[in-house]
From TrEMBL:
Transmembrane segments: none annotated. GO terms for cellular component: endoplasmic reticulum membrane. InterPro entries: Calret/calnex (IPR001580), Calret/calnex_CS (IPR018124), Calreticulin/calnexin_P_dom_sf (IPR009033). The keyword Chaperone applies. Belongs to the calreticulin family. It is a single-pass membrane protein. GO terms for biological process: ERAD pathway; protein folding. It is found in: Endoplasmic reticulum membrane. GO terms for molecular function: calcium ion binding; unfolded protein binding. This is Calreticulin/calnexin.
Length: 78
């Protein structure tokens, strides 16, 4: 008798005559080729950076307006 047991954590156990013969994870690339669930982002091998790409971590915005933090912005009339 052969039993396939699927667990909530995506493991598949194969039992033959009550004895476990194989245990695999359905989401593992080591157990399945190709994997059952593909990566959400597939790299584009033809994608290239533009020549004028700016590598700086932070790029200043010349149109940005500094906010006044901790100071009153409005005069309230009572």
């Amino acid at each position: 008798m052969c039993i396939l047991h699927l667990t909530p954590d995506n493991e598949l156990r194969i039992l033959v005559n009550g004895e476990e013969k194989k245990k695999v994870n359905l989401l593992s690339s080591e157990d399945f080729e190709p994997i059952l669930i593909h990566a959400k982002i597939i790299p584009d091998t033809n994608d290239k950076k533009p020549e004028d790409w700016d590598e700086r971590a932070k790029i200043p915005n010349p149109d940005a307006v500094k906010q006044m933090i901790g100071k009153r912005m409005h005069q309230w009339k009572l």
